[in-house]
């Protein structure tokens, strides 16, 4: 009996120990069978390899793992005949017919390359002017601006040489030497400008204008007091006056010297905004250059002009660009137009996140985030993949995939340093601490149509005016109960957003600093304060690529595997 009892116990022990392997085996077997089933579903459509076949597959099997592959194949097949034709007409037709295709970016680039090549073949001032007027959004606009600026500078130099013996190219060389010695003033490097020059009629006489074109940072000098203006005069203007006075000594019809300190996003005179202008009578300037006229005397005779500070939308980024059209005073209309200014097909954005808790604890992470507008393809509105670098705790995800379907429902996949992608209903457990207060998909990218918007009036926002719009999410699962957006009236960009929790209490405030590239606006810095915990998060965008034409397959759960070692 005893022997039989021992034997029974041993058999039970063996059975129990073998059962430990059963869940893992069953899970692996299930995954293999699921893979085989999905592969079998996809195989006949892959074999047909037509746009119609892939669309039929997507409609029939929207949950299949080959969804993104099928979407990419549709893009490939749509683009193939136009790429084979390889003409401007073909690429133009392709962009018009398939604006959402990821190869639309490639087609536009090829159109742009062809048009700038034609312009460079002519290489004339008039040719570049026509190019900039006709193709303000061409990717080679900056190339055209630089060449136009150089050609016009050289043309003026030739005229001045013939009329006055004035060497404008030598003046530019002297200015470049001076730039290296100029100091910082009010946080601005006074030597960091591009020189352009014009001769303009003023009251029957000629005024020689030196345009010192800075980046938009120079606008911090707008409204500067007289003491700062005199510092700029001493460090920069006075030295240029001496050079010009000596060069134009025998030019009596040059009646005035003007120095225009201006800002331009791309340092181009064609879209410059004057920040500060000094105008000096030429006779007294010549006496000043000969030490026969004092500094204070010359400044007393100078006309110093400072236009009012421009509103953000007044800064044109391309020749011919216009201020946004007026909006109706309706919350939804304001938010739609604001979103349109910031909406791309896809983006790659690199940023640094720094979160400081009330007790002084600092969490930092570097992020590369890919985002794509699916526009309903496969039942999805958008997807994003976030790759994390250098976070302090390896318990958090290396990468997170967030999908938003056309109904607004979200799914989150995560990838740790080891293992396979996992699907979770609570992605906050996997985010690094630096991102805890402001995950972008939940706070900054809620679709306009998935919230109710109400216009509440206007308020002052520093030196400008803002629309105030109250927005309430349709979904009870939204991260916040409501938000208040302060939208700058002219630019239609949100300068501040306040978020409220489920109890109606103010929860978080976000302040944004904006910049533009390729006609799309995005923020270069955001500061988020959690007013309930005291934590402050600073997000600085270090690099951005707008509309690079990302493939759909970059946003499949399986693609997370490669993000554990790096994002390509």
3D architecture notes:
- The chain has 568 residues and is an alpha+beta fold.
- It folds into three domains: 41-122, no CATH class; 138-314, no CATH class; 331-563, outer membrane lipoprotein receptor (LolB), chain A (Clam), CATH 2.50.20.10.
- Helix content is 36%, strand content 29%.
- The chain contains 15 helices and 20 strands.
- It has helices at residues 2-19, 22-48, 51-60, 67-85, 88-97, 104-122, 125-134, 141-164, 168-179, 226-247, 282-289, 295-301, 331-342, 440-443, 560-563; strands at 184-185, 188-189, 194-202, 205-214, 254-263, 273-281, 303-305, 346-356, 362-373, 380-389, 399-405, 410-415, 422-424, 451-461, 464-473, 482-488, 494-500, 506-517, 520-530, 536-546.
- The strands form three sheets. It has a 13-stranded antiparallel beta sheet. A five-stranded mixed beta sheet has the order 3-4-5-6-7. The protein has a two-stranded antiparallel sheet with strand order 1-2.
- A hairpin with a 2-residue loop joins strand 14 (451-461) and strand 15.
- The longest helix has 27 residues, at 22-48.
- It is globular.
- The model is unreliable at 11-22 and 309-325 (pLDDT under 50).
């Amino acid at each position: 009996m005893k022997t039989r009892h021992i034997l029974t116990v041993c058999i039970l022990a063996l059975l129990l120990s073998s059962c430990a392997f059963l869940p893992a085996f069953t899970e692996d077997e299930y995954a293999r069978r699921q893979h085989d089933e999905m592969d079998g579903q996809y195989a006949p459509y892959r074999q047909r390899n037509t746009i119609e076949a892939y669309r039929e597959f997507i409609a029939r099997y929207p949950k299949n793992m080959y969804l993104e592959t099928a979407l990419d194949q549709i893009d490939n097949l749509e683009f193939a005949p136009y790429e084979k034709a390889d003409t401007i007409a073909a690429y133009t037709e392709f962009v018009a017919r398939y604006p959402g295709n990821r190869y639309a970016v490639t087609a536009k680039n090829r159109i742009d390359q062809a048009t700038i090549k034609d312009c460079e073949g002519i290489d004339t001032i008039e040719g570049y002017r026509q190019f900039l007027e006709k193709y303000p959004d061409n990717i080679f606009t900056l190339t055209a601006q630089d060449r136009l600026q150089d050609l016009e500078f050289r043309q003026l130099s030739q005229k001045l040489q013939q009329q006055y013996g004035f060497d404008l190219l030598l003046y530019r060389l002297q200015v470049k030497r001076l730039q290296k010695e100029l100091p910082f003033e009010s946080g601005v490097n006074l030597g960091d400008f591009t020189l352009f020059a014009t001769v303009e009629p003023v009251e029957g006489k000629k005024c020689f204008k030196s345009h010192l074109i800075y980046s938009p940072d120079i606008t911090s000098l707008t409204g500067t007091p007289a003491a700062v203006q005199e510092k700029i005069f001493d460090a920069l203007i006075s030295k240029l006056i001496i050079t010009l006075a000596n060069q134009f000594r025998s030019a009596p019809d040059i009646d005035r010297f003007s120095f225009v300190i201006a800002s331009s996003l791309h340092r181009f005179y064609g879209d410059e905004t004057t920040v500060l202008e000094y105008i000096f009578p030429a006779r007294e300037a010549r006496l000043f250059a000969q030490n026969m006229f004092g500094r204070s005397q010359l400044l007393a005779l100078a006309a110093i002009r400072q236009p009012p500070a421009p509103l953000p939308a007044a800064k044109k980024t391309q020749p011919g660009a216009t201020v946004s059209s007026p909006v109706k005073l309706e919350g939804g209309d304001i938010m739609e137009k604001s979103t349109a200014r910031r909406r791309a097909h896809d983006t790659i954005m690199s940023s640094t996140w720094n979160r400081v808790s009330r007790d002084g604890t600092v969490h930092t992470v570097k992020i590369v985030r890919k985002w794509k507008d699916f526009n309903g393809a496969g039942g999805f509105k958008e997807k994003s993949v976030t790759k994390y670098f250098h976070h302090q705790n390896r318990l958090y995800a290396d990468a997170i995939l967030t999908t938003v379907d056309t109904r607004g429902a979200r799914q989150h996949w995560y990838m740790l340093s080891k293992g396979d992608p996992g699907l979770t209903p609570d992605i906050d457990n996997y985010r690094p601490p630096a991102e805890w207060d402001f995950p972008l998909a939940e706070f900054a990218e809620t679709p306009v149509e998935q919230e109710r918007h109400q216009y509440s009036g206007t308020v002052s926002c520093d030196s400008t005016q803002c629309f105030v719009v109250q927005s309430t999410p349709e979904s009870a699962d939204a991260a916040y109960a409501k938000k208040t957006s302060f939208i700058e009236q002219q630019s239609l960009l949100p300068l501040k957003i306040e978020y409220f929790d489920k109890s109606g209490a103010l929860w978080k405030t976000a302040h944004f600093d904006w910049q533009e590239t390729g006609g799309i606006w995005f923020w270069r810095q955001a500061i988020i304060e959690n007013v309930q915990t005291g934590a402050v998060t600073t997000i600085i965008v270090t690099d951005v690529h707008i509309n690079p034409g990302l493939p759909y397959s970059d946003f499949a759960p399986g693609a997370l595997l490669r993000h554990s070692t790096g994002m390509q």
